[in-house]
Amino acid sequence: MNDWHRITLQCLSLGGLLAFSHSVSAHTGLLATDGFSHGFLHPFLGLDHCLVMLGLGLWASTQNHRLAGLAVLLFLVFMVAGALFGLAGGRFVYVETGLIVSLLAVGTALGCGTQRVPQPWLWVAVAVFAALHGLAHGSEMPLAVSGVAYMTGMVAATAILLGLGWILGWVARRGHAIGLLHLYGTLTGLTGVWLLFSA
């Protein structure tokens, strides 16, 4: 597969996935009736969630494997913690603002080509943003579905998005198309700015 084929594949994959994310907010109605489907679809149906999780995966592809793996694992753990807090009835008035800030942060990291982030700030940012995304997911769980099934679906979908971002980033780097990661970051940051001023 030549470089142009790799670039085309990445663009088509990203375009198709983002087209599927037709909602700007994660708070959207779902047609599925079981807990797993609700939890699985929720990350895909929120453009903010989808962009951040793909972006984190893309960023992870630019780091050493140990650092990237720890960041992804930390994101999943704190997302689950935030979701459990939301399932228990916990609320945070600035959660939507936090989600927008996460878009700006991921967009800046990718758009500006930031390869190295000071680790203390990295862990804090990943943990806080993951908890906020989890809280948004957890607070939206329908009362009639199983919490365990919902959480399982949510974690599975998030892992897929993170993994897909990681793979696409690896493909872009192998194809000498690292500029696509910067472009994705710029678009993600601009989406955050748009949401900030349209809220």
TrEMBL record:
Transmembrane regions: 42-60, 67-87, 93-113, 120-136, 148-171, 178-197
Leader sequence segment: 1-26
Transmembrane helix among keywords: yes
Pfam families found in the cross-reference section: HupE_UreJ
UniProt keywords, alphabetically: Membrane, Signal, Transmembrane, Transmembrane helix
Lipoprotein in keyword set: no
Protein name: HupE/UreJ protein
Organism: Methylovulum psychrotolerans
